[in-house]
Amino acid sequence: MRHIASVAELRELVGQEIAVTDWFAITQERVNQFADATGDHQWIHLDVERSKRESPYGTTIAHGFLTLSLLPMIMQSAVSMPEAKLSVNYGLNKVRFPAPVPVGSKVRGRLSLKEVEDIEGGVQVTWLVAIEREGGDKPVCVAESIARRYE
After folding, report:
1. Are 72 and 89 spatial neighbours (Cβ–Cβ below 8 Å)?
2. What is the dihedral of CA 85, 91, 96, 101, to 10 degrees?
3. In Å, what is the CA distance from 85 to each residue of 58, 77, 115, 123?
4. How sure is the predictor about 4, in pLDDT bands with cuts at 50, 70 and 90?
5. Which of 1, 25, 37, 46 is a good FRET partner for 121, with 20 to 30 A between their CA atoms?
6. How far apart are CA 104 and CA 95, in angstroms?
7. Neighbours of 66 (CB within 10 A)
């Protein structure tokens, strides 16, 4: 966990890798719950036996959007700052899923600080987040995540 004491310190870190999280497992139960929550019940995510036979990955894989939905957990486990009056998720600039996440894989987040911009009442912070799969040769998700922090 990287503690950043102030917005001034945050500004000094632009362009740097800030934190790397611990590895955590992507289970079939998590994938099933995500499918139920989103209504995305495609067989490649849920049907273990069919995936063994027909999938190019030989197993079920996590939804790309499940991988993306891990960003809040990754951010909270990687970076802490003093309490702000209000912090909000402002959106995403770019998201890509360069590689699949086979169920049973372990993933982690790698965070770099791309930009800190002044906005009325606070700052807008753009993070580059790469989610890696243990043993993988390329990231499973790369996203520019934007947050706004009001002091």
Report:
1. yes
2. 50
3. 48, 20, 21, 12
4. very high
5. 1
6. 23
7. 21
When the pLDDT of each residue in the chain is averaged and rounded to a whole number, the result is 97
pLDDT tens, position by position, 45-85: 999 999 999 999 999 999 999 999 999 999 999 999 999 99
Strand 17-20 and strand 86-96: pairing?
unpaired
Set out the domains of the chain in order of their start, with CATH numbers. 2-26+61-150 (3.10.129.10)
Q: Three-state SS across 92-148?
A: EEEEECCCCCECCCEEEEEEEEEEEEEECCEEEEEEEEEEEECCCCCCCEEEEEEEE
